[in-house]
Structures are given as structure tokens and as C-alpha cells.
Amino acid sequence: MIRAVFENEPFSASAEDEASLRGALDRHVRRDRRQLRIVRVAGQLRLPDGSTWIIRSRKADGASLLGWLAYADPTLDALEWLGMVPDLGDDAGFGSLVARVFCLETWRAVQTSGLLRAYHRQAVQSAVVRGRIDFARLSRGGGDLSRVPCIVFARLPQTPLNRLLAAAVQRVDRDPELRRAAGVTLPQLGALLAEVAPVVDASMLTGKTPLSRLEQPFAASAALARVLLRHGGLGDGDGLRGPGFMVNLASLFERTVVRAFADAGLGAVAKQHVRVARPGGGAWSEGQRRMEIDVFLPDVAGVPVVVDAKYKTRISSGNLQQMVTYCWVTGARRAVLVVPAGVVADRRSFELVGASGEVIRIEVVELALGERTLGGWRRAAEAVVQAVVGSG
């Protein structure tokens, strides 16, 4: 059974399903009276009873979410070269979409370039000449031609790129929903990579190892493999456990805002720590809580500005208090809350006037979601930066 719900919209579920959802998604499941809401995540999840839950977001469909990931994570920039993303219908989750696109793109690259192999130098002894003769060893051995020392170059498929692709293929093959969406290209890729160990090099998973010139046709495939391996198993940095594929939208939104200002060349400081201390034992000791400013701009038209990303539908008094705290700590008198476009009804600016007459201004700026290409996401991010800089 497949059940589809929308992120942050109420739905009804049995007590057993609620318990299973909470076990997998933890704090992302909330109860409002008699109904539940799943907040800040999108993807798909298989419950112990065998049912599959598809969690969508009205803010960004599957193709938009793929472009969104590519913008927020520079190691996925190669997704810009993807062609048309297929429509899998309403009963497929985001993981199924990524699995389908990964298999199609990888098979296309294989048809174009073949499975790339690395040359491995081997020393052998043979009664016939293989490769080239190692004359130094031959002379040291007395010139015995019955066992000619040769140097052979074998073409082996065990490359870091192929291991990454093999691990992604294995990830898809182990999930029945992803396997169904992948289609006929999955067994073909499985046979092609059968001799490759699905052991991922950490540098390949993080994108720190650049692909060679010959490997460039597989750039988009490698990026999709990273998406599959990072977000599979409900990981995504949240400590979630279970069979599924999930993306944390709040974290993704925050990373998008951070990259927008990092790319703008404004000297932005990302994730600046705010020290929180508590008095204890007659002396100040570090508290257990830690606060971070998403983006601190030290100089916008001559003044500092604090920017915070809020993946929310309304601005609370707690959000305003947080921004006032950030302004007090940094000396800024202007703060910006970046919210998803079209979901916060009241987007008016706030002004707080202190006893000495100083004014702290808190503005609300929207980030347009739903772009389907990496270029579109870049333009949306640039619009946010311009809204902050232009109104400064």
C-alpha cells in the first residue's frame, strides 16, 4: 500500500502508523488534536507493515528538489548537465525519482564512454612474451628464455568512481520502491559493475576528489550517486533510522541561504557562534546550549547585518527575540529573516526602539522555491542577496 501526504499538512493515521512514523522520523512528526503533521522533511518511508509513505512538499516538487540539492551543495553542481527529469507519477517519492534518473544517466554515460578502467602494472613470468620484456630482470636471471620476465598492464574496473557507482546501484537494488522505479537499466548496471566492490572512498562521497578528464561524462552520475548514498536510510544528518529516503528541507533551506551570501562576495561569515554562558559556582561557565548566526555580513553599505534562515510559515515572537539577541551581540542594528516565498502571510518589517532611541530593524525577505534548474536556483538566491543589499 502506498500513501501520500504533504509536508506540514494535517492527516489522519492509525495508532500503529503513528508509532512507526515517530520511530523513524522522531521530532518531524507532530500531533495537532486528532491529526498528525510531518514537518520539514520530504521523501519516502517504508513502515514495518510493508506500506510506503510518500511525503511531498508543495513548495518544491521532485525535479525542483533535485535542483535545490544541487544548488545547496556545490559538490552536486554537475547535476546542471542533466537532461529532462522524467515524471514518475503521483505514487513515486523523491527517492524513486533520484534512483530512476541515476540509472538512466549512468547507462547513458556507459553507452557514450564505456565503463572506465584503470591500468594496473603487473610483473609476470611467461614462456611467451606478454606486454613488454623486463630486460633488467632477464639479465639478472641469466637470460633464461623459458620464463621470460614481462611487465603487463591490466585494465581493472576497481576505480574510486566505479566503486561509488556500484555502491549507489547496490543502494537502489536493496530498496523495493527504488528498484521498481529504476526500471530495466538497474540489472544492466548491476551486471556491468558485478566485479566492482561497492566500497565508497570518503573523498569521493564528499566530492573532494575531482574526476579526471576521461571521467567527466560520469559527472552527473557521480553527483546522483552521492545523493542516493547520503540521503538513503533516513540519514541526512538527523540521526534518523529506517528503510527510506528523506531530505531535511529546513536544513536544505538554511544551506541555500548560506551559499547565496557566500557566493555574493560580501565577506559573509557563515555559522558565526554566539557564546551562551550561565552563572554557576560563583564564576561564569559555558552553558550547554550554543547559538549560531546563519550569516553575518560585517559591511552592507557601511553597517553590519544579521541574516537568519527560517523554514517556517509564520514569524513568532521567539524569532524576533532571537534576532534582537543576535543584533545585541554583534552590534548590528539591522536583521533579515529569510523565509520561503508565499508561505508567511505577514511579511511586514519590525522596528524595536530602545530607551536611548536606538532602533533595531528586522526585515522579512522571501526565497522563491520551486525552480527546476540549477541556474534557476542561482537566480532565486541572487534575488535574496539583492533584496538585502539593495534595501540597506
Describe the protein's architecture and organization:
This protein is of the alpha+beta class. The protein has 3 domains: 2-114 and 159-245, no CATH class; 118-156, no CATH class; 263-390, no CATH class. 36% of the residues lie in helices and 26% in strands. It is built from 12 helices and 17 strands. It has helices spanning 15-25, 62-72, 94-113, 135-140, 160-174, 176-182, 185-192, 202-205, 219-231, 249-262, 317-330, 374-390, and strands spanning 2-6, 29-32, 35-38, 41-46, 52-56, 118-126, 132-133, 148-156, 244-248, 269-274, 277-280, 283-286, 291-300, 303-309, 334-340, 350-353, 359-367. The strands form 5 sheets. The protein has a 6-stranded mixed sheet with strand order 10-13-14-15-17-16, sandwiched between helices. A hairpin with a 2-residue loop joins β13 and β14 (303-309). α3 crosses α6 (176-182), α3 crosses α7 (185-192) and α5 crosses α9 (219-231). The protein is globular and about 100 Å long. The protein starts with a strand and ends with a helix. 37% of the residues are buried.
Summarize the structure.
With 392 residues, this protein is an alpha+beta fold. It is built from 12 helices and 17 strands. The chain is globular and about 100 Å long.
